[in-house]
Amino acid sequence: MKIILTGTTGFIGTEVLTQCLRNADITSIVVLSRRPLPNALSADPKIQVILMKDFKIYPDEVVKQLEGADACIWSMGTTDAIPELEIDYPLAFARAFSPTLVGHRRKFRYLHTSGVLAEKDQIKSLLFLQEGRRIKGMAENEMIAFAKDEVHEGGWETYIVRPAMVLHVEGDMLKRIGGYLLGTVKVNELAAVMIDVVRNGNEEQILQNAEIVAKGKYLVNAQ
Ligand SMILES: NC(=O)c1ccc[n+]([C@@H]2O[C@H](COP(=O)([O-])OP(=O)(O)OC[C@H]3O[C@@H](n4cnc5c(N)ncnc54)[C@H](OP(=O)(O)O)[C@@H]3O)[C@@H](O)[C@H]2O)c1
């Protein structure tokens, strides 16, 4: 399986990359990043790192390197919820890559990292963090709508994960307390779920935190 990853220099993306490297079914990993990965990771023969100058522009030689991929895990993003980063970048990827799916019968699975507070309803009034929650929700809407676009002849599936507060495997006592209201999930369990979804699909298109926790514990215990 060939997989495209973003956000691999970040907290969640690093764990996704680490687990992809351990997974024997994943034979090729293409990383889209604005800066190099630590040598210990990028030296792995499974990995090819493409340093992007602009995440809205995909030159032909970049698209060629992405061709043949079966899945993408998009872990790029911030809590600042900047529209260009959250919405334009994943859409630019989708528009640049999806023409390579035409004429192939297989499905491409795209998994988008959103958050527990994302709000898909763009006119609903929210008591707190309104702008950021709407932007995260708008990104979800766009990527779900993209899966219905005829341009890729039904070859694209979108999934969304909505983790609550993501914890390191050990420690994080303050975050655990902070996550009391919204919930928490361990980063290794989240990453295991993200990889499982792009490999095997999932009944629900949007995975809420409770489902991620339950599925993640099961997958990690089975490893
Ligand atoms: N951590 C949590 O508790 C949590 C909970 C729920 C949802 N989420 C969501 O999950 C996603 C990832 O979170 P994280 O905790 O892994 O964040 P993180 O550690 O800050 O990592 C963010 C990643 O996105 C990349 N990135 C940020 N701005 C960029 C830009 N303008 N252009 C290109 N790349 C950019 C970073 O690259 P550089 O290293 O080059 O900056 C990094 O790889 C975010 O959307 C976040 O909102 C996180």
TrEMBL record:
InterPro entries linked to this entry: NAD(P)-bd_dom_sf
Top-level taxon of the source organism: Eukaryota
Protein name: NAD(P)-binding domain-containing protein
Source organism of this protein record: Mycena rosella
